[in-house]
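pasting input
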Amino acid sequence: MTLNIKDLPQQDLFGPGNAACRGCGAAIAGRQAMKALGSRTIITIPASCMATLSGNNQRTAWSVPFYHTLFEIAPAVSAGIRASLDAQGIKDVNVVSWAGDAGTADIGFQSLSGAAERDDSIIHVCYDNEMYMNTGGQTGSQTPMYAMTSNQKQGKRTGKKDMLAIMVAHGAGYVASASISHPLDLIEKFKKAAAHDGFSYIHILAPCYRGWEIPTDQSVATARRAVECGLWELFEVVEGKKVRTHEPSFLPVADYLLPQGRFKKLSTEQIQEVQDSVNSHYGRGEAKQ
Amino acid sequence: MTVSLLTGSEAAAYGAKLAKIEVLAYYPITPAFPAMEKISKFIEDGEMNTRFVRVECDHSALAAALGASLAGSRTFTVTNSQGLLYMTEVVYHTAGMRQPVVMAVANRALSAPHSRFPEQGDAISQDASGWIQLFCENNQEVLDTTLQAFKVAETCRLPAMVNYEGYIQSHTQEEVDVPDQAKVDVFLPFKRVSALDINNPQGLNTVTSPEFYMDYKYRQNEAMEQALGLINDVAGEFGRAFGRDWSGVIEGYKMEDAEHAVVAMGSSVSDARIVVDALRAEGKKVGLVKVRSFRPFPTQALRAMLKNVGLVTVLDKNIIFGAGGALGNEVKSTLYGVSSVPVKNYIIGLGGRDVGPEEIRQVVGLAEERIKQEIGYEWFGL
């Protein structure tokens, strides 16, 4: 059964009144995900842009229960919420911890790893803008090699930590990558995660115009180029079995990298190095060993 | 009613069992871990209908307990020392979220240097956290206070710590009367409050601006002040129901005509009772004030209790470096401007250094000898 965009619910359970910047990849991801998750969802968000833009004082941009947690604890809090719902006999509720790349891969990693290992019945979402944007764009473990950040003007010297592989290694029952440029693919994956009885992990590429130094109307197009050049592979791993959910057209990686200010200092050799990594991953072209 | 030989850890576990907690979250640490093992056993044996979230660290332990509490469950956790320090961020946050999580703390010294032995510095480190902090002198009080803590916490919507000392209490058996479940159910009914209610969506802990933040803090503090009266009321109600009166926020022992008051909290209180009895037998007018509630601090009750004494000696199993003992400082602050009675503050028993009745008797003697000397605080037993 293939999803059709016309069949998606009209109602936006996240969005109206949010304080996101124009073209915010995180907010787009939230809106898309809620089309799949529906109103029987409790969402916890640790310190991040998403938590900040989700409400202030007595206002909330969520039509479902939303809790802005401490930075490190969204998966642990969600595990506690699930335990309480179980104790109350409430079974039809999705419990989602929705974190940025820091709240997932770095400061939030310990509690995420714990929840995954225990196979708590929660969905953890990483919306990944590849740097610490809520504090102005510093380097984190999800920042790719050579990207310039506010505290590494010469570019990052190490690569992006492979969170998807790490979560697969936890034995999680459902693991998927997604991109805001492919909403139906994203929504389908959220439906599967919601149907999975156990721990699920979805990692969404969600560009940030400020950190990536792109025009505000280029977030979705940039994410699409990341997918099409092969740098952001769309796939899912169901009970350990990996399936690619979109075949990229293998746009040159330069077409993805060069329009972004954060990669403007890349040399020809560095671009070729990135291209080789893609070729090698997909087993195509003449990748250098 | 069943009288059993129980350690303090087991007494805390029985408290949680009788309170019918729905969710336990816990990460093992010495010497708190036997309480968790006992509850886990109750769960495995089908004696408790409780979900155990087997978290990967102390920080997540309180986080999971908090999540369960926000979703509407009665929740419990146990920790001490490094575990308590590690979860400190969540300790403050839980109080701000106004969730009535109850936490047993088997008080232990803080590193460095590494020590696994008793002292109250861990609890004292959380004195500004917004948690109710109750201290128990024996294992019966650990069980009874756990039940009372839930009732107080759920009434004023604040979290509460039940403190008992590592090893001295956590690993030492005493006779403990385990109350009947039916009587506990009457004393401690459960009314579910779900901040995260799927049928009534709300945003929690949203970004708060200066127009609101201070008022939230005012209300949080107001609840702490309200807890003073509640702790007294609940102790009274407990006494009427179970025949054991723990006398609320403070207790005076032989204070009616006392000229010299010893102020203490935790296991030292039991030892100090023995000392007071012995000195009374020798005709010395010494009394004891047990501080049961360190937070909120019972300022008015303590002032009234110490109104007519000529000397106050405060025992502290903690040190605030460069400032003295935490209880000593509170007593001085309580009496400042309303009394000129000398207050002698002794730092005792850190990191498990033994302090029993003989040592406390020496401290009382030292304080009397030095009544005229202006000493901020002194170390005893070096």
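fyi Chain B is about 40% helix and 20% strand.
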